[in-house]
Structure formats: structure tokens, C-alpha cells
């Protein structure tokens, strides 16, 4: 969809319903995928998405065009999702590991579809899933993640390491299942 970002934001600031609908239609699909990376249930993800867009429209006056609109919206969606998880106690973090495991080099199969990968990420324990998404996908540093989630930097690193190890095992099992083993 081609649109003028500035014109769209200005329309939303005027509470123009057509502009709001265009903004929602332009970004809702991508943002639903973001929500689904953190929660297993599509219903939960849709609820979070709806709450996120309410916040987007409430805060649209604060958007200053200093970053792409999609990045600004995504940050609101991620923060809304984290607040949802925190409020609903959907993640717990294990004790910090004494030693963070070595980086796990994983080569993703060409045959592994993004929906399969999303499903594997959704199967991670909630704490691991949140840290994995924030670090590997959203690009936050462990110090930032620790601050966002109210955990130590070491816990963030250990949860990420655990998530990678679990994903590696799940990918191995996935490949073995595909090959009939």
C-alpha cells in the first residue's frame, strides 16, 4: 500500500476515521506477527494488537517523524505486549546460570517456513520467549532488556542462551521428523 506517511499521521491527529483505518490496515498484519511471537494464543495477540492501536491513536500527537512510523508503532506494540505479559504473570525467569552457554550456531533449513519458526518460538517458555524476541528479533541489548523486564542483565543473557539451546533442539527434532526418523 502506497501512502504519504506525513499525511496519514496528520489525518490521525485530526481523528479522521479514514486515516485511522488506513494506518491500521497498513500495519496491523505485521504487528499481529509481532504479538504472536510473544503469546501463543491468536485471541490474546489480537487483544494486544487492539490495545496497541488504541495507544497508537492516543499517542499519535507525540510522533515526531524522527524514525519510520512502522518502528514507532512496533515499539508501542512490543511495550504493550510486555505489559500484558507482566500484568498477567505470563513469564517467569529461572535463576541466573553461573555460566552463560556458548553461542549456538544454528543454520536454518531453506525448507523451514517462517510459520514453522514462529510456532517453535511460541513453544519456548514465556521468559525465554520474551528475551529471545527482544534480543534476536527486536535488536535490544541485554542491558535494555533487563531494564524493560525488571531482571538482571545476567538473567537476560542466560534466558537468551537457554532459548537458543531449546530452539536448536526443537529444530533438530523438527528436521528428524521431516526426514522420517
Automatic annotation (TrEMBL):
Residues 23-90 form the RNA polymerase sigma-70 region domain. PANTHER family: RNA POLYMERASE ECF-TYPE SIGMA FACTO, RNA POLYMERASE SIGMA-70 FACTOR ECF SUBFAMILY. Transmembrane segments: none annotated. One of its GO terms (molecular function) is DNA binding. It comes from the Bacteria. The keyword Transcription applies. SUPFAM superfamilies: Sigma2 domain of RNA polymerase sigma factors, Sigma3 and sigma4 domains of RNA polymerase sigma factors. The keyword Cell inner membrane does not apply. It comes from Siphonobacter curvatus. Belongs to the sigma-70 factor family. ECF subfamily. This is RNA polymerase sigma factor. Residues 116-166 form the RNA polymerase sigma factor 70 region 4 type domain.
Amino acid at each position: 500500500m502506497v501512502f504519504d506517511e506525513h499525511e496519514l499521521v496528520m489525518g490521525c491527529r485530526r481523528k479522521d476515521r479514514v486515516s485511522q483505518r488506513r494506518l491500521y490496515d497498513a500495519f496491523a498484519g505485521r504487528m499481529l506477527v509481532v504479538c504472536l511471537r510473544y503469546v501463543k494464543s491468536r485471541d490474546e495477540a489480537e487483544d494486544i494488537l487492539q490495545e496497541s492501536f488504541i495507544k497508537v491513536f492516543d499517542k499519535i500527537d507525540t510522533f515526531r517523524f524522527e524514525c519510520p512510523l512502522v518502528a514507532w508503532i512496533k515499539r508501542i506494540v512490543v511495550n504493550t505486549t510486555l505489559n500484558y505479559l507482566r500484568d498477567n504473570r505470563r513469564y517467569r525467569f529461572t535463576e541466573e546460570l553461573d555460566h552463560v552457554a556458548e553461542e549456538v550456531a544454528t543454520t536454518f533449513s531453506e525448507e523451514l517456513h517462517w510459520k514453522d519458526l514462529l510456532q517453535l518460538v511460541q513453544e519456548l517458555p514465556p521468559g525465554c520467549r520474551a528475551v529471545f524476541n527482544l534480543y534476536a528479533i527486536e535488536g535490544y541489548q541485554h542491558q535494555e532488556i533487563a531494564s524493560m523486564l525488571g531482571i538482571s542483565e545476567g538473567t537476560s543473557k542466560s534466558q537468551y542462551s537457554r532459548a537458543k539451546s531449546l530452539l536448536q533442539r526443537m529444530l533438530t527434532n523438527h528436521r528428524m521428523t521431516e526426514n522420517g526418523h
